[in-house]
């Protein structure tokens, strides 16, 4: 009888059929996995090429602005994009202007409600998102002064499709640094993007209500958000990002400021970024198709395809702790001052002293500002008193802990002479000497700032040096 052939040799010269079967199945599994990964890679590259084909042949806004060259050149750019640099990369910093507007069907469809300058520094891998107020007055190329939120609309009136370029050029001239790229999206498109992603997850720090959120028919509505981890659809995400008059009903922050609004916008943008780059999105052809249709219809940009892919590579490497949020406003320690227009009496913002040089210096030195602010805050060491002007027990101690967590030292905590204070008041007795301390107080607990101490509190001056006396009102929780 012929001896049966053995499949494998073990330590004793033979191996069992069971062991051989397991090794065969393992090798087959690895073969399948390799082929699946190969097919996924081919599918992913095919998706990119298909989008390039569609974009190259399309005449819609998104396609036209990201595809100015032939398909062959685009494919060549994609293949060689690792060897190419973004605008500004050679100088160590790329700046992107992000604009949000109502869009068709709204009053003033091209007035930009949201204006953000995003700046990325390659050496430190840091990102600054600077929120610019829509009421800031800027000088246009024809020498006229206009609100910054009108620039896009002016560009569109000169030539349809010219709004983004016109806004970029004029904002660049006013802030003193190059704007390398621009992106504009209308609010309906923003909602559609979030919905196409299946919603976004954000952590809401304070429960707040806004009784003055605008409707599409020129009325107002009430919107409300609950603190904690929340899943928001497109409409909710837009309202969360746009709310201007939030009143905190559960929490310790302040939601009615430009700073709070800008911080919420950053949360939404960060969450959208994470969702787009997630495995569940890039491997889902339906989601990719929906996103492209939305981008095609509602987004305008001068970013080309290979540049978009390069941006994705950069975004994936950014540490969330290195994304900083800044707001230009009319706070005492900030760059602007509020006034009214001599032309129509409208409320406007202008640089302090009418000098745009301070704004240009701010943007030029943006990546040095973080260290300067931290050092300045450490050196201020202001003397702070907190008085509880309500009948809410323990309120002053609660707020003191919040401020102490910010590195501030609270020298005295007690009840105020009366307990009927409606609003929180920050008495700044430092002669504007400690701007970073004031900013921290306003950002964390809010309040109305004044440098005139009320008569019933002047006895506290007998203690000697006091820089800030905070009278807590019933608006605190």
What does this 3D model show about the protein?
- By secondary structure, the protein is an alpha/beta fold.
- It has 2 domains: 85-368, 3-Layer(aba) Sandwich (Aminopeptidase), CATH 3.40.630.190; 381-472, Alpha-Beta Plaits, CATH 3.30.70.2390.
- Helix content is 40%, strand content 22%.
- The chain is built from 15 helices and 20 strands.
- The protein has helices spanning 17-57, 61-66, 71-79, 151-158, 163-175, 187-196, 234-242, 258-276, 279-282, 285-298, 305-317, 357-364, 366-380, 395-404, 435-445, and strands spanning 93-101, 112-121, 126-131, 137-139, 145-147, 181-186, 200-204, 207-214, 220-225, 228-232, 247-250, 299-301, 323-327, 336-340, 347-351, 384-388, 410-415, 425-428, 448-450, 468-472.
- Helix 4 (151-158) crosses helix 5, helix 6 (187-196) runs antiparallel to helix 10 (285-298) and helix 7 (234-242) runs antiparallel to helix 8 (258-276).
- Residues 1-15, 32-76 and 371-378 have low confidence and may be disordered.
